[in-house]
Each structure stands twice: as C-alpha cells, then as structure tokens.
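User: We ran a pulldown and think these components assemble together. Before we commit to crystallization trials, I'd like a predicted model of the whole complex to look at. Sequences follow.
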Amino acid sequence: MPNIQRLKNLSGSAAIVGVAESDAIGKVPDKSPLALHSEAALNALDDAGLALSDVDALFTAGWSTLDVAEYLGIHPRFTDSTSVGGSSFVIHVAHAMAAIAAGYCEVALVTHGQSGRSDRAPIPRNSGAPMMQYEYPYGIIGPPVSYALACRRYMHEYGEDRTRQAMAEIAVSTRKWANLNPKAYFYDRPLSFDEYHDSRWVAWPFHLVDCCLVTDAGAAIVITTPERAKNSRKGGVTILGAGEGHDHSMISQMPDLTRAFGRNTGPQALEMAGVSHSDLDLAMIYDSFTYTVMATLENLGFCKPGAAPDFVADQVTAPGGSFPLNTNGGGLSYTHPGMYGIFTVVEAVRQLRGETGERQIKNCELALAHGTGGLLSSTGTVVLGRP
Amino acid sequence: MATEYSKPLPVPQPESDHYWEQAAMGKLVAQRCTDCHEFQFYPRVFCTHCSGRSLEWQELSGKGTLFTFTIVHQPPHRGFAGDVPYIAAIVELAEGVKMPSQVIGIEPDPEALSIGMALEVVFEQATDEITLPKFKPALQ
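Assistant: Here's a predicted model for the assembly, 527 residues in total across the polymer chains.
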C-alpha cells in the first residue's frame, strides 16, 4: 500500500513550468505523430523559458521514449514509457516528481502526439492477447462498445432516465466551455439538449455526442525542481498530490463496472495534497464519454455512487456554474487524439496561471486533473496548486 | 467457408487451446481450481483466486443471465459492417464467471432486452478451427 506519510513529504517537491499543444490541433493530416510530439515539446519548453538541451528526463506513452528521444535528438538520463492508455501522461507527471525528488533528473519533459484522425500507420494489434482472443471476435472492440457496456450496467443499478439526463447535461455543459475556447474543435458549434437526444447511435446507450472526438494533436509538459521553477518564465504550478493504478485490461474483466480505479487515486491524491474536495476550484476529468465523467465524479469521491446524475443536474458544470468542469471543452468538444489525459493537465495549469481568457474561472488556486486509460482500466490523478 | 471470414479471430494460446478445441465441439468449458474450487474465465496457468497451480477443466451448463449489453450501430471493425446493429454483451454464467459474448436470436432493441434475462449458449462456427460460443434467450 502507498505510504501516505512519505507521499506527504514528497508533495510539492516539483513544479510544472511549461505546457503547450502542438502548433495545430484538430485536423492535422500534414504532420506525423512524432512531429506533433516535437512541436508540443518545443512549445512547452518555450513556455518554460527552457531549451531541449536542458531536458534530462523523458516520459511518453503510445510511442517508446527511444523513438521520441531520437527524433528530438536528446539523450535523457531518466526514461519512462509507462503506457496504460490516456491516463499515462497524468501518471508521468507524478513519476517525474518522484524522479526529480530522488535526484535522477532536474528537467523532465512529458510528450504526447497522436494522429487519431489522420495516422498513415495505425498501430497493429496483437492477436494473442486475451482481449483479442475473447472480446474482439464478438465485436467488443474499442472504447465506445466497452464503455457502453459499463454505462448500461450503471443505468440498471441507478436508473436509466436519470442517467440519460445526466449524460445530456455533460454533453451540453462541456460544449458551452468549448464555445469559449478558440482552439476547440467545436468552438463554433453550440449543442442543444434537443440536438443531444437526436444524435445518432454509435453504441446504444451512446449517441454520437456522448463520444469524444477523434482528432490529431500533440501536447507536452515540462516539470522541474521548485528552485528552478522560481526562475522560470511564468513561475511554477506545484504538484501537490498524485495517485495511479489499474484494475483490468478488457472490459469484461473489470471488477465492478461502475467503479473504476479513481476510487483509489482520487482519495490518495487529495490526502497527499492535504486538501479536500470542497477546496478544489477546478476539476479536469477525462471525458472519453459523457458517462465517463459521471462515473469518475463518483469514483473520485465528489459524490456517492449513483449520485452523479443529481450532482451534475441543471448545468452546474457549465460556464458560470458552481462546479467548473473541463473548461477547455474536454475530449468531447475540444480535442481527443486517442490518449487525451495530458490535456487535462495542460488546461489545469493554464487556469491556475490565469491565462485562459474568456473561459478563465475566478481565483483558481487548486485544481484536480484526472486521466482514465484503456477501457476504464487505469487512472491517474494529480492535484495542482498555484504557488 | 463460402466467403472469407473477415472478423477478428482468436489466436489460441497454449493455455487456451483446450477452451477453443471444446468450443469447436459444441462444449463450453472453464477452468476450476482443485484447491479452492473456484471457476475462472479466461484460462490461465494458475488460479487467480488462491494462486493454486492445479486447475481442471469442467464443462459448464451453458446457462446464464444477461449482466450488461450494448447495441452496436457503428461497426468498430470493417468485418462487422454487415452485422450492425448487433448486441454485444457480458454474460454471467450459472457457475459464477462472467464472459464477453453476443446475444443473438432477439431483436437488437433496448426494449426487448433486460438485465438479468435468462440466456443459454449457442455455438456459431466461424471457421474450420474456430467456433464462437454466443447466447440466445433461454426457453422458459
């Protein structure tokens, strides 16, 4: 079990000093995934006032750090290719803090780049793995089908109509945030409740607008010591708490379809940070599907199991509401190249720095960023604070 | 087969050869631990309940209930383009294990399906080597 006292000692021992996306996100057929990694890396280092030559640790997922470091032309002294789906990059933030605190490195670079929409060479699948043996032959392939299986079970346990209403609330409130973010895929496209209910089925109970986007995008994060953060271009955002872990790989092996691993990582990250849910000013929660947000709010402890439909009612998660959620427009309406988790951290840092313009929430001092990876398989949570 | 089978096929591994061989003969089997007597799905080289190394194969009743389902409208793989809408499901077997499968022989309509409804196994041959255990509503 995690040693919470030692984790409390680790809290605050590193800071995020740079965040960025690739030059363009959305439809980017003229850039390879590694080009997106590189653009984001250079942009994030520029945000931090650092250079590639300062980087001594590399973290990435999807690709090996070998490929990314070679493309970047760097020679890291600490390397971590932990790849457990879209949560990986949130987990990397915590790993980077541990590595910095242990003395392995001083400037950690986390990179992401995916051409979910335009990739010329999609990653081949391994047919020997249990998922390919036991689920793929039945057409249980990919996130929409798997998450829909979990959502239908949730509906059975907690009520179909109130679940449906909550899914609509999330889709609509998230779109309202995207309408305030010029970088969002759906910046110019509002979404009404009627449009939500009229949207075509992908995998019932999921409408198309219950599902995240499929885009091309890269992002990167630069993390360093608190001392170096003081002299960085924009100051540091302190890493206060973290948790990570996973249950299963394929959805039919999930121990409880309505309780993902955030049940552990949420409470751990908050306890490590020494804060409670009500202290948080912003929640950035990986929204692969509208349903994912509901389940995650419960898993993290914002509300009790089955209570998410009440928690998100009446657009409280929309701009101006009492619970700002996914202020970039989320995977649902901003961008989602496949493994979106890094973007939850990027937006949390920008909100904490007060640089998000029209969508800036007032007095944002404490934020939670949470990634879910695989098929509700893995989660990573971090709590970030303004210095 | 008249036309080439275009859906993903399982590639049996040494610990699952028996499962797929039995399925091809119209039998649904699972491993049971000789120490703690728990069943497990899917086959492994040890018991995930007690870490025991002694497992035996048992034929299952083929009876179960619908634990959850989805009606897939957008094919997640080109091989399923002609099958949509189809019912993907997790079935809770009478012996206590859950397995992924499809429900066939019933309208792919959320109103026609209910969580907990009784199901029984049917075997659908995919190729000469591979037969997939699927489920249909059980006769009362």
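The CA atoms of residues 28 and 127 of chain B lie 17 Å apart. That may be worth checking against your pulldown data before setting up trials.

User: Thanks, that helps.
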